[in-house]
Amino acid sequence: MDFSFKKGVLLRFILFSISTYALLILIFAYLYYSTKSIGFTPYSRSFDTVVDFKKAIYFSIVTFHTIGFGDIHPVTDPGRLIVMIQSTISLFFTAIFSGFLVYFVIKRPSDLFSTRHLYVRYRNDCYWLSIRLGNKGRTIIDLKSRFEAWTIENNSRVRAFQVQREVPDLERILYYDINLDDVKNHKLKDVLHKAMFKELRLHMKFSVIGNDIRTGEQVAFAKYYDSSDLRFGKTFLNVYSWDANGHRKDFQWKNFERIEEMDVHLQEKFKTV
Q1: Taking the alpha carbons of 224, 226, 229, 234 in that order, is the dihedral positive or negative?
Q2: Model pTM?
C-alpha cells in the first residue's frame, strides 16, 4: 500500500498520541508521588524505602499497560483508586488509538479535485460547459455524476438545470462536458448568458461518486461554483505525456488549471447567440 500521501496525517496523529500518552503517564506519576500512595514490596526493597518520582513514573507506565510486575504496589486506598482510574483510562486510550490508526491507514485520503473555475469551451463547432477532474489516488470505477444549477429568488432555491449520468472510470484526468448547443441543454445555456451579463446570480454544484478499484470503498467529491467562477477557454494544457509502452509519465499537475484562451469573436458569439 502506498503511504506517501498519508505521511503528514499519520505523523501528526502519532505525535499527538505520543504527547497525550506522555502527559497521562506524568500526571498519574505525580499523583502517586504527591500522595505517597505507593511503595516497594518487601521482597524487592525494604518496606519503608521511599519511592522517588522516577520510580513513580516507572509504576505509572507499568500500571498504564496493566503489566503488574509487583515490585511496587499501592499501599493506601487513594493509591488503589488512582490505579483503577489509570487502568480504565488506559483501556479506552489503547482502543481509541488502535481504531484511529487503522482508520488513517485504510481510509482513502481526499485526493480528488477539480478546476477552480467552470469553463465555456468551443470545440467541434459547439459550445461546451467544462470541468476538469483530477485524481492523485487509485482509479475510481462505477462513477456517477451530477451537475445542477440554481438561483435564489424570494429567499427560495429555484432549480434552473440538473443532469445526472454515468461517466468513464477516473484514472488520473476526467473531462466533464455538457454540450450547450444540444436542445435539451438550452435552458442551461440561457441562464449562463444571463449570469455572464450579471442579470442573475447563478449557483452550481458538480459532484461525483464511485468506488475505489482496489478496496471497493465508496469515494465522493463535490464542488460548488457560482457566476463569478465562469471563464472562457479552449483546450486544457496537458498534465502528462505517454511513453512508448502506453504508460503515463512526466506528470505536471501545475498545468491542471491552465487552459488556452478562446478567440474573442467566439466569446462574443456565445454572448449574443
Answers
A1: positive
A2: 0.64
